Amino acid sequence: MRPLPRRWLWPAAALLALAFPALAGFDAYICHVAVLVLLYVTLALGLNIVPGFTGLLDLGYVGFYAVGAYTAGLLSLNFGVGFWLTLPLAALNGALWGILRGAPTLRLTGDYFAIVTFGFSELVVMVAKNETWLTRGPMGLPGIPPPSAFGASFRGEIPFYYSILAIVALLVVVTRRIASSRVGRAWFAIREDEVAAEACGIDIARYKVTAFALSAAVGASAGAFYAHWITFVSPGTFQFWESVIILCMIVLGGMGSIPGAILGAVILVSLSEVLRGLLGQFGLPEDTRFLFFGLVMILMMRFRPEGLLPVKAGANGER
Fold this sequence. Notes:
globular
């Protein structure tokens, strides 16, 4: 059987995604997991912009996820702002914080940059825990209203599935276009050799800040979606391990690879749900699944360090 031509892979994947709820028999649990998978696909694609495209290790991406979730929750509960407006507002707020975090770190690389990003995410979580006058602290923000369309609130998982699928589709189109544009080529040049890129006339500071802002905006929009989907936000959701898991997704799929980020998110989230059920049957705690994630990453580093769908030499985000 002849393989499907590459130009048909994206349309085939889109058709499969559109038909997935029907193929799953509209099962509520399977559709819930599918929404979760697509949510992490969004986060993986957003994070991929910084370490994948510009080569800077970001260990605090969950901070922007939290910023978006609390922005949406507070706007909805305190001012009655609906989902379709909180989503872009959360993205703008995330982009602002991405610039504020990124601007002071422009001269940092490697471990130093990673430490600063980790500190940012921990600072966001500490503010969410301790500023009870704003965030209600550990009690969280309950009762966030779900999205509505044509006067009816979303019920069940199907509307959320197609909403997040539309976000993912838009994000894939945008990131692919940016990766093949002048901005994307500048990012990849910075990733390969920052000194050489600067010598060629690339404005390192401007392109780095652009990457920080765009990546943070995507993470914050995912947080806004999460807040309206679960209708509850608390600091416990945004722990450091979330950043590590999202980073593992893009490492598993291939750093800088758009299809790889999608595949890595699908594999790790699906594996997490399977392990959750299996570990429960054996009376083991859910966190034991992180040991399996570690084993998967060790095997990847040993046998396929470039990832499952690595970027070809000279390619911009494509396998």
